[in-house]
């Protein structure tokens, strides 16, 4: 097709030629046999040259069905640092594009060696903790993620196209993409804020392009189109494929169709009857188109434009509108008359001519250019469908964007005095990027022939903190202990082990600190056992050791005041601590321990009153000192025990215990009786004797 642009900016079709391929040298928009395609191009070129003269340059389009559209996603852990700049957001977007590129590679056949260039992407959603949000900057949360839809074109598509042109003696003047070509002439930039889907339904595939927010946001392809409808007609009516194709085209023009099947029988049917027979295939085509639109756009668009010969399929427009819940007037079949910049010059105005005209106009007005740059010494050719950025160049150059920014250092999660606390590692550094020796950012536009050099950012250092830094609470105090000045400071423990101030904490350590703020803490540090406990008291009696059990207790005084063990102390306080016997040891404790019968006794009835006479059998001496029963003794002392010979008690001993107040009258005489019989002062007495002392008148 030869177009001419007039001074008013409008285009006119001067010449049009169409030749079908003699063999299947192209499949799904990809050149499979370069010499065969080159022969077709050369034939058309020769026929046109007869009318217009020599042709050396040509505007071409790469098939939209070669495009691949894939969703990608990238995430960032915000616990390691918030997003504070647009550059970080762009980095996340490009990382999502690269993830889409990896995903595309995984979807391809494992034997495929196609290399794909990203020709555009659009952000679908920003998420903060899985809730959609407008912008990350200034937001706080746990995890940020971005979802994009990216479009890729195989390099081989363009390379093979250029090779076929070269063999046909033509030079590529401009390049565009078929979906872009159609959408450019039907949906100008001023309309692209609307969410519109353009569907180009050809023979083998249906190509889809979607606009929104002022740009083309997605491309897609459905591997069913007009040929599936033709095959359905062929199968239902037993027709050869070319005959079925002609009958299919007549369904939109006639109410009754006549045909002869492969068995030679002529038939005639109402168009509505034929359409009903192939309705299942029409339904399948409408399903494929609408499902792909919903996958790309996540919702029904505001309007749909159908172009290409397959768009004339009966009932297709109605079924697409129904499946997307759109009014029928929001789905339209568009032909040449919809191209405002085209001067009518052909009788044909069908939708099948929209894309070829669009290729000519778009390739002239919005040509796709190549930009050649060097990335870290590697020459890269970028396919410029949109504004190319440094980020695009780095992706094409093989940079791993997920590793472009230095990773934050590993954090520490520890327990401090029972409370779990997180210490963050240092943030990784941003990459160093230069274009032609000048620092630049990922969003800067790439210049033709630019030399780009980048170095990935360095990873942040792991969190490193000493136990003193973790607590930041260190005390030093002085206490006078039994007259000696001593210094006490905070003690630190990791996993129950005491450590020094500068010991570094490891991940998941259990840490705590203690200052000996009470007297009991001081006693523990000095190893003093403050519990009351039994001890042993040893003394020597006549040279032989005698050990007695006893109890030790504490004497605790702080600043001359008696206090208990759990009393808190302050800097400069004075502590006096002693261990003392709970009770003093006396001579009685010794004699009890010796099990001695210390006394000789005799109990009698004297003048009708009971009287006990006692005479010591043992005496104890400490050196020359005679000891009493309540005399306090000290450990390791040496005592001497003397035993008195045992003598019988006599009546006279009674008078050591009683005082006689009786006064004899004149003429009376003292009489002593023992058990009713007369006795004397020297008469021996025994326990149980009844003694009587009285005065009688002597006759």
TrEMBL record:
Coiled coil: none annotated. Residues 1-186 form the SHS2 domain. Pfam families: FtsA (PF14450). This is Rod shape-determining protein. It comes from Fictibacillus nanhaiensis. The lineage of its organism: Bacteria, Bacillati, Bacillota, Bacilli, Bacillales.
């Amino acid at each position: 097709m030869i177009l001419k642009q007039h001074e008013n900016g409008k285009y006119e079709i001067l010449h049009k030629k169409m030749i079908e391929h003699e063999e299947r040298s192209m499949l799904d928009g990809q050149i499979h046999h370069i010499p065969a395609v080159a022969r077709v191009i050369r034939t058309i070129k020769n026929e046109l040259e007869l009318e217009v003269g020599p042709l050396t340059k040509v505007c071409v389009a790469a098939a939209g069905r070669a495009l691949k559209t894939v969703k990608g996603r990238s995430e960032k852990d915000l616990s390691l640092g918030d997003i504070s700049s647009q550059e970080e957001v762009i980095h996340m977007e490009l990382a999502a594009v690269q993830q889409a590129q990896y995903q595309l590679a995984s979807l391809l056949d494992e034997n495929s060696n196609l290399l794909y260039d990203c020709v555009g992407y659009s952000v679908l959603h920003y998420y903060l903790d899985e809730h959609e949000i407008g912008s990350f900057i200034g937001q706080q949360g746990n995890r940020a993620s971005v979802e994009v839809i990216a479009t890729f074109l195989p390099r081989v598509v363009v390379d093979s196209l250029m090779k076929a042109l070269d063999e046909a003696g033509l030079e590529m003047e401009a390049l565009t993409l078929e979906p872009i070509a159609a959408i450019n002439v039907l949906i100008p930039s001023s309309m692209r804020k609307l969410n519109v889907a353009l569907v180009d339904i050809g023979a083998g595939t249906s190509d889809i392009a979607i606009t929104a927010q002022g740009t083309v946001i997605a491309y897609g392809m459905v591997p069913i189109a007009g040929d599936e409808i033709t095959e359905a007609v062929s199968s239902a009516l037993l027709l050869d494929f070319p005959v079925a194709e002609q009958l299919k085209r007549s369904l939109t023009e006639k109410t009754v169709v006549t045909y002869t099947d492969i068995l030679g029988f002529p038939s005639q049917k109402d168009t509505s009857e034929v359409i009903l027979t192939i309705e299942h295939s029409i339904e399948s085509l409408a399903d494929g188109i609408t499902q792909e639109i919903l996958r790309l756009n996540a919702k029904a668009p505001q309007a749909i434009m159908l172009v290409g010969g397959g768009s004339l399929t009966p009932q297709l427009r109605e079924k697409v509108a129904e499946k997307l819940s759109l009014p029928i007037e929001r789905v339209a079949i568009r032909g040449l008359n919809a191209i405002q910049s085209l001067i009518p010059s052909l009788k044909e105005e069908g939708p099948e001519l929209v894309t070829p005209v669009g290729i000519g106009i778009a390739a002239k007005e919005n040509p796709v250019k190549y930009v050649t740059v060097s990335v870290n010494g590697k020459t890269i050719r970028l396919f410029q469908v949109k504004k190319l950025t440094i980020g695009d160049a780095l992706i094409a150059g093989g940079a791993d964007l997920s590793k472009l920014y230095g990773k934050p250092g590993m954090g520490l999660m520890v327990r401090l005095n029972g409370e779990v606390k997180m210490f963050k590692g240092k943030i990784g550094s941003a990459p160093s990027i230069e274009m032609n020796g000048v620092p630049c950012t990922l969003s800067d536009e790439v210049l033709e022939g630019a030399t780009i050099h980048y170095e990935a950012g360095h990873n942040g250092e792991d969190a490193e903190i000493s136990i003193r830094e973790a607590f930041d609470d260190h005390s030093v105090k002085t206490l006078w202990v039994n007259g000696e000045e001593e210094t006490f400071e905070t003690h630190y423990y990791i996993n129950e082990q005491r450590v020094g101030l500068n010991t570094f904490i490891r991940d998941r350590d259990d840490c705590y600190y203690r200052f000996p703020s009470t007297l009991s803490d001081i006693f523990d540090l000095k190893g003093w056992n403050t519990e009351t406990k039994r001890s042993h008291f040893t003394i020597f009696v006549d040279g032989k050791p005698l050990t007695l059990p006893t109890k030790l207790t504490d004497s605790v005084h702080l600043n001359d005041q008696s206090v208990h063990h759990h009393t808190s102390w302050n800097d400069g306080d004075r502590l006096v601590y002693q261990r003392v016997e709970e009770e003093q040891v006396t001579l009685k404790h010794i004699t009890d321990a010796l099990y001695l019968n210390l006394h000789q006794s005799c109990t009698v009835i004297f003048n009708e009153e009971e009287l006990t006479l006692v005479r010591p059998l043992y005496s104890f001496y400490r050196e020359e000192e005679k000891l009493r029963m309540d005399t306090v003794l000290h450990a390791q002392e040496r005592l001497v025990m003397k035993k008195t010979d045992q003598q019988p008690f006599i009546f006279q001993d009674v008078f050591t215990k009683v005082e006689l107040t009786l006064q004899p009258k004149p003429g009376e005489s003292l009489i002593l009786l023992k058990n009713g019989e007369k006795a004397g002062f020297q008469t021996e007495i025994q326990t149980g004797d009844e003694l009587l002392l009285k005065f009688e008148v002597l006759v």
